[in-house]
Amino acid sequence: MRCALFGEQIKAYEDILKPTGKYEISRAPIGVVDDQFKFNLEELPYQMTIGQQTVVQRLNPEAGPIIPMYQPLSTIPRTADPDSKFDVVVVVLFVEEQPRMITNSRGRESPVREIVVTDTRLHEL
To answer: Given this model, what pLDDT does residue 75 score?
Structure first.
C-alpha cells in the first residue's frame, strides 16, 4: 500500500520512518488514490495519509509477540469512506529520498514524500 506524508508531516517523520522498520499506525485515513498519482495501474486503489491525528509508533522487536487487533491491509474495503480510519501494523518497504512537489486539484503545489508499506502477514510464493 502507498502511504503519503504532506507538508509539515514530511519533516516531522523524517527521522522516524525507516525502510524495514515495523510500526503501529493508528488513526490514519485511507482514501482512494487517483490514477494520475499511481506509479503503475497494478497498485492498490487507495493510500494511507499520515496526518496530525495519526499516531505512528515503532515496534520493539525484543518486546515479544503482539496480540493483534489490527486489520490486515487486504481487508480494507476497496471503496473507501472519506471518514474511515484503520489501525494497522506495517513494515516500511520504501521511503522516497526527497520530498517532491505535486499540484492538487485546486492548482496549488504541495510537498509530498511517498512511503510504501506492507502488513506483517507471511506471503506464500
So the answer is: 72
Question: Could you tell me which residues come within 8 angstroms of residue 63 by beta carbon, excluding any fewer than 6 positions away?
Answer: none
Residue 8: band (very low, low, confident or very high) from pLDDT cuts 50, 70, 90: confident
Q: Residue 121, SS3?
A: coil
Quick one: which of 97, 103, 96, 70 has its CA closest to 2?
96
DSSP for residue 34: P
DSSP for 50-66, written as a single string: E-TT-EEEE--GGG---
DSSP string of 76-119, one letter each residue: S-SS--TT-EEEEEEEEEEE-SS-EEEE-TTS-EEEEEEEEEEE
Q: What is the dihedral of CA 124, 25, 106, 110, to 10 degrees?
A: -100
Strands 85-95 and 22-32, sheet pairing: antiparallel
Q: Give this prediction's pTM.
A: 0.52
Are 20 and 91 within 8 A, CB to CB? yes
* Topology (CATH) of 2-97: OB fold (Dihydrolipoamide Acetyltransferase, E2P) (2.40.50)
